[in-house]
Specification:
Length: 481
């Protein structure tokens, strides 16, 4: 089934419904053991412009198909994705070093996401508004409010969820009648091309999705010169998000960017439960999640107890190969490991106490807890995207709120405690998109709104919200005589 998308282990470009060979390619190696996995197309300007043309040509026919039929096609694609889930999970685990179990759940979660997006699209189909609700308005006007496609949506996904954070952009865009120019992360492109093949096998009409692979730094400037892109839907780092918003100018954008999610632990918290959530939240997929818990703000009176429980739990984390379902696996590349190590060293030099279960081996960093962290250490505010958990002790709830808010990011926060009134008062003061009470920070369930404020993002994701942001409202006003 996947033979079509490669020749001699060189992957192809999906252009206008056909898989075509590329003249230039980039070799992809596994972060696990440096095994060569295949080459992906390094597309040049002509390829990119052809892809944009294909999206443009296909737009008229795709958006004129009725919603029901678009939904049926997406459901059929979801079924194909489910059929090939194990093959795709296997590639995903190798390509981004994610444990196999999580890789498989990522694919299955994406199938569910498509199905629920279809169901929700049928619910938000439109409404009629009457003009006599306001005293100054006339009774003789009514607005038929419908949703229409925006045009070509540029979907750019990050390395850490090559299937799910691609599907969460592609599905709502296509269902709402847009066409998609899809740029996966370079490390993640092999998984993403398999995803597109599975969706294609479900019966996608030609041209409604075209793949753009190659280094983002090269591709980005080519695409931004085109004035044909209707919207950008991006997940990735804040710095790239900022540069995209400058280069694409005044078009709608949804961006999920970096984070520095805090877990605030109050004096009356169930420490066992808080520590469980914190360790899972901080270390799953070796901390390479935007929603990972990236700092603990704990009340001083319970800090010693909490640190001890966290250390015990961290000592039991499995480290090694994704195919042994280890939680801590090699990071995506050596540069990421260098960055994490630098943050750890800076903290230790400034007085932090380090607890780790092993020494770095190439891009594998053992889970590390940093205690006695103070605000002058880089790790207090930088996003490591690795398996390191800084613990900051606070004197008061107000200190915790201030430190939480003293961040350029505002993705999520967690509060652990028992006094629900106190927790709500804190939650209202935290500057972030979502506050989790007695639970770790996380994006799902996928029908919940997911958003970051400040440097963590623009717009809202989540099934209904993504459908809304992937479409625009059209109001047709009827004047009754
Ligand atoms: P990244 O380096 O920003 O890359 C993200 C995507 O942008 C990749 O597809 C990348 O392609 C592409 N890209 C890079 N430069 C570009 C340019 N000039 N124009 C167009 N596209 C460009 O991020 P990452 O390393 O994949 O992911 C880690 C970061 O993403 C972390 O900061 C993390 O917090 C954030 N993240 C946030 C969320 C969220 O939901 N808030 C989710 C996941 C990740 P190449 O791979 O070819 O460079
Ligand atoms: O990495 C960013 C993702 O949006 C996080 O998703 O909370 O389901 O792991 P997750």
């Amino acid at each position: 089934m996947f033979e079509e998308i490669r020749k001699n282990n060189i992957y192809k470009i999906f252009l206008d419904g056909r898989w075509i060979e590329s003249e230039n390619n980039i070799k992809i190696y596994s972060p696990i053991d440096n095994q060569f996995l295949g080459s992906i197309p390094a597309m040049v300007e002509k390829n990119v412009l052809d892809a944009i043309d294909s999206c443009e040509k296909s737009l008229i026919s795709w958006k004129s198909i009725c919603l029901f039929d678009r939904c049926e096609i997406l459901l059929s694609s979801a079924n194909k994705l489910f059929e090939y889930r194990e093959e795709i999970a296997n590639i995903l685990a190798k390509e981004i070093s994610k444990d196999y179990k999580s890789s498989l759940s990522e694919v299955i979660r994406s199938v569910d996401l498509i199905k629920e997006t279809v169901a929700e699209a049928k619910r938000i189909n439109g409404e009629v508004l009457f003009g006599d609700r306001m005293s100054s308005q006339t009774k003789n006007k009514l607005s038929i409010v419908s949703r229409e496609s925006i045009g070509i949506i540029l979907a750019i996904s990050p390395f850490n969820y090559p299937i799910n954070l691609s599907v969460s952009k592609i599905a709502p865009a296509l269902i709402m009648g847009n066409t998609v120019l899809f740029k996966p992360a370079t490390q993640g492109s092999i998984s993403a091309l398999h995803l597109i093949r599975a969706l294609e096998l479900g019966g996608l009409p030609k041209g409604i999705i075209n793949t753009i692979t190659g280094r983002g730094s090269v591709i980005g400037s080519i695409i931004s010169k085109s004035k044909k892109i209707g919207m950008v839907n991006f997940t990735g780092s804040t710095s790239i998000g900022e540069s995209l918003s400058k280069s694409f100018g005044m078009i709608p954008m949804t961006m999920e960017l970096g984070g520095k999610d805090a877990a605030i632990v109050l004096s009356d918290a169930d420490l066992e439960d808080a520590a469980d959530n914190i360790v899972q939240g901080a270390f799953s997929y070796s901390g390479q999640r935007c929603t990972a818990i990236k700092r603990v703000l704990v009340m001083k009176d319970i800090a010693e107890k909490l640190k001890k429980i966290i250390r015990e739990k961290v000592s039991k984390l499995t480290v090694g190969n994704p195919f042994d379902n280890c939680m801590i696996t090699p990071l995506i590349n050596n540069e990421s490991a260098d960055f994490v190590e630098k943050l750890i060293n800076d903290a230790v030099e400034k007085g932090a106490v380090k607890y780790t279960t092993g020494e770095r081996n190439k891009n594998l960093i053992y889970p590390t807890v940093l205690e006695n962290v103070s605000l002058d250490m880089d790790v207090a505010f930088e996003e490591p995207f690795g398996p390191v958990l800084p613990i900051i002790e606070v004197e008061s709830i107000q200190d915790a709120i201030d430190i939480n808010n003293k961040s350029i990011y505002g993705l999520q926060s967690s509060i652990f405690g028992k006094n629900i009134d106190e927790i709500f008062n804190i939650a209202e003061k935290l500057e972030c998109g979502t506050v989790n009470i007695n639970g770790k920070s996380e994006r799902g369930p996928d029908n919940f709104p997911f958003l970051g404020i400040k440097s963590s993002g623009i717009g809202v994701q989540g099934i209904r919200y993504s459908l809304e942001s992937s479409s625009r409202i059209k109001s047709i006003v009827l004047n009754k005589k």
